[in-house]
Protein: Endonuclease/exonuclease/phosphatase
Organism: Ophiobolus disseminans
Amino acid sequence: MKQFWLFSKQTLISVESSQLPSAQLQLRILSFNIRYATTSPFTNEKPWSERFPLIMNQLHHETRYMSGASLNTSHSLSSVIPVPTAAIICLQEVLHSQLTDILHSLNGSTPTGDPMHGPIWAPIGVGRDDGYTKGEYSPIIYPIALFHLLHSETVWLSPTPEKPSIGWDAGSIRILTIAVLECKATGRRVLASCTHLDNAGSESRKHSVEIILRTLKRVEKDWMNDGTLPIFLAGDFNSFPEQEAYLLMSQSEYMYDLREFVQRQRRYNDPITFTGFEPEKDKDEQGRIDFVWLGPKDSKNCSWAVDGYAVLPNVFDDGIYLSDHRCVVGDVCLLC
């Protein structure tokens, strides 16, 4: 019997799956900083052409049977799969060429096809440098057979969030990607969000979290149905749990760290999410800086039930690092 941990106002309540309501959305959330395709690699960093197939092996494995690709589209979704199981992929440090490669692979399309519109997965997001295709994306990739996209936007983490811009002491332009998705089978809406905070500026990280919280609250208010809009935020915070960005988010009384709702013995793999490409040399920088957050705390009509948390390996016997980060995976169930 599968066991869940209910996420509700910082309370952990163990329940058996047989006790859960029959109408629910089971969701796997992936957050992965894949490392941009640099022309000046670090020592021990392989080029994108070598890392890409390994990253895709991991993404395909972790999302198998969670895209709705095998559904019989001649019937209604609700009659085919009353309890949808879906994956949503949130990535960071993705250049346009990398996003194209990833979508080609996920959609099984030929190099001459346009993978951005499916047929299985579609991306949400823009390049941070110009709001189109230049610079890094923080994309949200969702299965189009399972969700309608109701709303999307990009917010720049700066004093001018409506346009491409750099904020405070940041070393790079930073963005928040927003998507409101509606489950085709149940009509339930989810606010999905993905970000990558600055590595250089503490002030930037602090103000970025403030902007993120304001944005999530605004979108929640605008797009809730039945008085609620469940939220998740995935991303690379460039902040350890004892540092400013994590503390500000965790003390917001609005969003909670998914990992803390999984018992220690049920968490898979190492707590470290950033390893670097040279573990011994990068030891002082290693730690948990990639997170999946759930909210909102004060939701009266919906609750997240947390089923699992994992940090996936980023290097195997061949010695090739997929990235300097590890992919974080959260398994949740939406109860309304």
Q: What stands out?
A: Residues 8-14, 72-81 have pLDDT under 50 and may be disordered.
